[in-house]
């Protein structure tokens, strides 16, 4: 019975880590939705109105961010948009890692070190997932009828 508990504990921890990495990109839209929903609720719209406002704000944030990231051709602007999505994911990764590490780590210093590492990894994962949204020929001039061959010069020059 003890072995089953340990195996299921590791499976649950693995699932939570996978869920954290898979949902890291959605930290900014979630934050925007919760903030808008709470603002709507505190202004007197009621719980149903707050949920509708929060959901719509989150969806609009996600869609506008993805469209802006895909439409902008400047690498600097893409990096800024990706940073907007990766920063809240890094904060969420820090707190999730800190909460998980505090279960078993005896030293608060090690908890902080591991939480910072978790924030870097989760933020990097969100950054990488945002970069996957980029169109394949960004920043390259493509001449009609010409397909660039990256290794052609290496084979031609010997």
Q: How is this structure best described in words?
A:
This protein has 158 residues and is an all-alpha fold. It has one domain (20-135). It has helices at 2-22, 27-42, 46-71, 75-104, 108-131, 152-157. α2 runs antiparallel to α3 and α2 (27-42) crosses α4 (75-104). The protein is globular, with a radius of gyration of 21 Å. The mean pLDDT is 84.
Primary descriptors:
158 residues, mainly alpha, 6 helices, 78% helix
User: Into how many domains do the coordinates divide?
Assistant: 1
Low-pLDDT segments: none
Per DSSP E runs of 2 or more residues, the count of β-strands stands at: 0
Radius of gyration: 21 Å
- The tally of helices reads 6
Query: What share of residues is helical?
Result: over 70%
Cα shape: globular
Distance between the termini: 64 Å
Rounded average pLDDT:
84
- β content, as a range? under 5%
The assigned structural class equals: mainly alpha
The helix/strand order is HHHHHH
The profile of the biggest β sheet is:
none
Secondary structure blueprint with pairings:
Blueprint: H1 2-22, H2 27-42, H3 46-71, H4 75-104, H5 108-131, H6 152-157
Helix pairs in contact: 2-3, 2-4, 3-4, 4-5
Short structural summary:
The chain has helices at 2-22, 27-42, 46-71, 75-104, 108-131, 152-157. The chain is mainly alpha-helical and 158 residues long.
């Amino acid at each position: 019975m003890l072995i089953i508990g340990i195996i299921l504990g590791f499976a649950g921890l693995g699932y939570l880590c996978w869920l954290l990495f898979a949902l890291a990109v959605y930290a900014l839209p979630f934050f925007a939705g919760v903030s808008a929903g709470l603002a709507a609720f505190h202004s007197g719209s009621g719980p149903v109105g707050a949920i509708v406002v929060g959901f719509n704000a989150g969806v609009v944030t996600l869609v506008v961010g993805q469209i802006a990231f895909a439409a902008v051709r400047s690498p600097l602007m893409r990096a800024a948009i990706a940073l907007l999505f990766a920063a809240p994911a890094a904060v969420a990764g820090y707190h999730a890692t800190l909460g998980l590490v505090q279960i078993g780590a005896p030293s608060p210093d090690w908890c902080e070190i591991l939480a910072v590492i978790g924030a870097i990894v989760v933020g990097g994962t969100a950054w990488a997932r945002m970069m996957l949204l980029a169109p394949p020929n960004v920043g390259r001039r493509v001449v009609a009828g010409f397909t660039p061959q990256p290794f052609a010069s290496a084979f031609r020059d010997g």
